[in-house]
Design a protein that fits this description.
Blueprint: H1 8-19, H2 26-37, H3 45-52, H4 56-65, E1 77-82, H5 85-89, H6 92-103, E2 116-121, E3 133-135, E4 138-140
Parallel strand pairs: 1-2
Antiparallel strand pairs: 1-3, 3-4
The structure holds FE2/S2 (inorganic) cluster.
Length: about 150
């Protein structure tokens, strides 16, 4: 089944059933829902909270704290631009503006065609070769905003 064919309530129900009786089960539950749907439906937070015997505020707090969780479907490819010090000192702000301009979106957004989502990141562990950017699972070093 593709993500677009998924049944959100069914996936949440299955995850609740799997993790409800496990100490610390909320995080793996949220990862399972995120993996199954590509996002965590905000209208199903109450179902998650009820199943995990938590408040909706507690569940929302976890979702909003971790950058890996999203309330909206993400693009097919996520692009992350590093905003931490080493990359900033070598021009990541210009790179950031370039990427935003080319995609026509801001951080946290997804292109209208659903191909790309753009996120800030605070270090990709590649500080010796700034500025760094990650496209899907690949990290690229010494990226600038200049065409080649
Ligand atoms: S500061 Fe950018 S990769 Fe570490």
């Amino acid at each position: 089944m593709s993500i677009s064919q998924a049944n959100p309530a069914g996936i949440v129900a299955a995850a609740v059933k799997e993790y409800a009786n496990i100490a610390g089960g909320l995080m793996p539950l949220l990862h399972a829902v995120q993996a199954g749907l590509g996002y965590i439906p905000e209208d199903l937070v109450a179902q998650i909270a009820s199943g995990m015997r938590l408040s909706r505020a507690e569940v929302h707090g976890v979702i909003s704290f971790y950058h890996d969780f999203h309330y909206q479907p993400r693009g097919q490819t996520t692009i992350q631009v590093c905003r931490a010090e080493a990359c900033q000192s070598m021009g990541s702000r210009a790179l950031e503006q370039h990427v935003k301009s080319r995609l026509g979106i801001d951080f946290g957004d997804t292109t209208l065609d659903g191909r790309f989502s753009l996120e800030p990141v605070y270090c990709l562990g590649n500080c010796a070769c700034p500025p760094s950017i990650r496209i899907a699972d690949d990290v690229y070093a010494r990226v600038d905003d200049k065409p080649r």
